[in-house]
Each structure stands twice: as C-alpha cells, then as structure tokens.
Amino acid sequence: MNEERYITFDQYLQDEMTVEEKNSFEKQLAEDPEFAAEFETFKNVHLQLETKFGYEQEREAFKENLIKVSDKHFNKPKVIALKPWYYGAAAAAVILMGLFFYNYSQKPSFEDFNHPESAYFTERGNVEATLKQAETAFNSKEYKKAIPLFESILKENHTPEIQYFYGVSLLQDNQIIKAQNVFNQLKSGTSVYKDKATWNLALVKLKQKNYNACREILLTIPEDYEDYVEVQILLRELE
Amino acid sequence: MGKIKIHPDQKYIEGLAANNSAIIQEIYKKFVPKVVFYIKNNSGDQDHAQDVVQEIMILLFNQAKNKTLELTCPFDAYFFLLCKRKWLNELKKTSNKGVTIHEDVGSINECGVELVEQTEQFNEKQQLFDAMFLKLGDKCQELLKLSFTIKSMEEVAEKLNVTYGYVRKKKSLCIGQLTQWIQENNNFKSLKNN
User: Fold this and answer.
1) In angstroms, what CA-CA distances link A40 with A33, A53, A152, A170, B182?
2) Which of A101-115, A151-165, B26-40, B174-188 has the highest average model confidence (pLDDT)?
3) Where are the transmembrane segments (chain A) (predicted)?
4) Does residue B51 contact residue A74 with C-beta atoms inside 8 Å?
5) What is the distance between the alpha carbons of residues A128 and B107, in angstroms, rounded to a whole number?
6) What is the DSSP letter of A2?
C-alpha cells in the first residue's frame, strides 16, 4: 500500500497543504491518470463513509417514519390493534361467536371513532383573546364554553377552520342539527376541511345509529383523504 | 456534457432526504398503488409489495443524501420501474420455474431507464462498499466510524486515547486500504468485461 500517497490525498481533501504543495499535487493529478484515478476512488470512499456514518441517525429516523407511513398505508391490523382494549374486544367477539355459534358482529359505536383533533389557532402571530379562549376551551373539551366563543369569532372572521371546529364542538355537545348544517356548508365548499366535514357528517349518522346513511356518506369520501384508514376501518365494521 | 434539466418531481427526492412525512405519504398515496397492483399481478402479494417499496424508499433516501440523484423524468415512471425490476429480481432469486410476466405496455418509459440504472449501480456500489468495510480490521472500522460520526478528529483522538497525529494518519491509511481494494475490484471487473 502506498501510505504516503493516501496521507497526501487526505491532506489535500482537508485543505491542509501549502500553496506550492497544492500546485504540485494538482499538476500530478493532471499529468498522471493512474494517480488521478486512485484519488478519485479515495474521494469516493470518503463520500461513501460520510453517507454511511454521517447520516446514520437521520437514516434511522427515516426508516422509523417510513415504516409508520407504510403500515398505515397497507392498513396493517397490527397498528390499529395497538390499543389494548382492541384485543379484549376481539377476544370477546371470538368467545361470543363460539358460544352462540353464529356470526356475531357488533355495530361500531360513535365513541370508537370520535377523536376530535386539537385546535391550534394562535401559533400564528397575533394572538386574539377570544380565539385563544376558544382554543383552550375546545382543547380541554369544554365544548359548551367553546360554542359561543366560536360564534362570536365567526361573526368577524368567517374562515373554514373556525367553522370546522365550531361544527365539531356542536357535534360533541349533541347539537346535531346545527352541527350538520355547519358540516354541510363546509362539504359544499373547497377548503381543506371539505373531506373532514364529510367524515363528521358520517359520524353524525353513526351517533344516531343510522348505519346505512353513515355508510353511504363514507363511500363519498375520496381515497386521498388524510384519514382514509379510519374511513376504511369504519366501513369494514359497518359490514 | 449537456446541461441536465431537473424535473419538478425532484421535490419527492428532496422530501425523502429531509424525511418529510407529507411527501412520504404522498408517494404512498400516488405511486404505490400501481406497484402493488403490478406485484399482485405477477406472483406476489401485498406483503411482498410493502417490502419492495420500503427497500426502494430506503435506497432513494441513501442516494438522495449522497446528492447523486437528479430526476430528469417524472418520479412516477422512475419509481415504478425501480420497484418492478426489484420485484422481478426477487422472483428470479426465489423461483426456479419460469415466471410469466404480465407487462402493461404503458409503463415503459425510456427516460426512466437510464436513471433506474444509475440508482441500481449506486446500490451495487453501496453493497460492495459495505462488504469491503467489513473486511477491514476492527480498529479501522471503529476509527472510521467515529471519524465520520463525530467529525472533529481532536475529539476522536481523545475518545480513543491516542494522539491527534496518530488518528489522522490511521484514518488516511484505513481509507487508503478501502481505496486499494475498490481499485483492485474495478480493475478485475474491467478485465472480466474485456
């Protein structure tokens, strides 16, 4: 092995040569193809090592994230079944089937699919007092308190986002007709809350135990809806 | 060399390199169903498809991080072809009986072929490199790993309880050893091909 040569390669890459050394090194690169080829390989090895170890942590984080997305996409039951009570429910269903010897199936309940997301209105710049109050009330599930706050905000600032969270609050507070109106408005619009509103309309029907209507609404939700997995699960349970 | 025109779909490559969940999800939503359909049509099932896609995504991440992946075609064709060829390779490996391939003509895209070959070469190179790395002695492996994780050679020296001068020299020589092996391998390959 040509030790001196590799040491020079490294010095050149680390930019540790004097001007004269550098010039003579570059001259040799230009004149000696064998030298140049070996330097090229050395540089490549350097780059490979950088990729291999420099991004180790990032690669692990990527793999973890990738597996999450992938399992969600392929609808792996393992991921859905992470909630321990699912096992219990599944076991109970199996026992019931065994006992009664017929295909026992339980209709899904509203509570199982009701997971209102948190609201974050106030992270963007100006914090308005009412908006902050509404956000806090909503996130702590005090919907009765949140509803009048949303109503007063909507008078001034009629955005789909506020409308959506207002609708969710109404649904949680059992003001079904009002909730349906709000979601129907969003559904006929073009905002990013369109599909979410449709999903909530299905939840309304689920809450009323109107399973057929629920199913029909679910079937109108496009596959690229961000929580389509939930839609698929609910559809399957409705069967 | 002409100027290469980068396709706007380069955003997918950059998104992968940045571990951007929205982009990863978009790839699954938009491009993966086609792969699943193809694999299911060609002696595979959903689990095979999931594995193939995951491996290709990790390969793309690596190549993107290496900054050697520049899309000149739509991501769609490129990604599909990569997954398809990966699956056909798997099939060849696992089955000795003839496999009937159901091609859909629409998926053949000349522009993608060259890029796919580049990515496959990148993968081969990486595998060769990994194999060579494991041939190094434990000391070299440890030193290189530390040098490229920590980056400051002073800290590496401290950690290994040796002098700065020693780690610098040793690092050059360990990289040199890899260089030599890879050079030999390349020469061997070109001899074989001639």
Assistant:
1) 10, 20, 68, 67, 11
2) B26-40
3) 85-104
4) no
5) 53
6) -
CA distance A59 to B61: 8
* Contact (Cβ atoms closer than 8 angstroms) between residue B74 and residue B7: yes
Check: complex ipTM more than 0.85: no
Closest residue by Cα to residue B77 from B110, B122, B38, B42: B110
pLDDT in tens, B95-122: 765 566 666 545 455 667 888 998 999 8
What six digits make up the tokens of B94? Answer: 């696992």
Look at A49 and B29 and tell me if their CB atoms are within 8 Å.
no
For residue A162, what is the DSSP state?
H
Domain boundaries B136-193, corresponding CATH code: 1.10.10
- The answer to whether the CB of B115 falls within 8 A of the CB of B84 is no
Contacts of B13 in chain A (CB under 8 A): none
Q: For residue B138, name the pLDDT band (cuts at 50, 70, 90).
A: very high
Chain B from 25 to 84: CB within 8 A of any A CB: 25, 28-29, 32, 46, 49-50, 53-54, 57-58, 61-62, 65-66
User: How far apart are alpha carbons A196 and B64 in whole angstroms?
Assistant: 34
Tokens at residue B80, please? 């599909």
Task: Tell if the CB–CB gap between A53 and B145 is shorter than 8 Å.
Answer: yes
Residues of chain B neighbouring A10 (CB-CB closer than 8 A): 168, 171-172, 175
Q: What are phi and psi of A69, to 5 degrees?
A: -60, -45
What the block records as the tokens of B118 is 């580049």
Q: Which residue has the tokens 């706007």?
A: B8
Backbone angles phi, psi at A220, to 5 degrees: -90, -5
